[in-house]
Amino acid sequence: MILHLRAKPNARANQLLVAPDGTLTVRLKAPPQEGQANAVLLAYLAEVFGTSKSRVELLSGHTTAFKKVALLDVDDAQAAIVLARLRT
Question: What are the E-state strand segments in 1-88?
Fold first, then answer.
């Protein structure tokens, strides 16, 4: 499963938000320095989708807010269930 999302660092808590149009935004507690936010992003997505951190890979967007992340052990059906619970 590939996710396209926007990351917002320096938030009060880690949170994955799904807008009514399906846009994904992840708020992260970590600052955007030295890859800290990216590391927190991958760990948080692993937790949310119930997979190992080693099975979550940042494909693009290492230095930008817009990220492309691969969830290697999560299929589309599993992801749809998780994202449906998070819709705002």
Answer: 2-8, 15-18, 24-27, 56-60, 66-71
Task: Give residue 18's domain range.
Answer: 2-86
Q: What tokens were used for 56?
A: 């979550």
The pLDDT value recorded for residue 87 is 78
Number of independent structural domains in the chain? 1
Q: How many residues does the chain have?
A: 88
Q: Which two tokens stand for residue 69?
A: 């992340």
DSSP3 helix / strand / coil % (the chain, rounded to 5): 30, 30, 40
pTM beyond cutoff 0.90: yes
CATH code for position 80: 3.30.1200.10
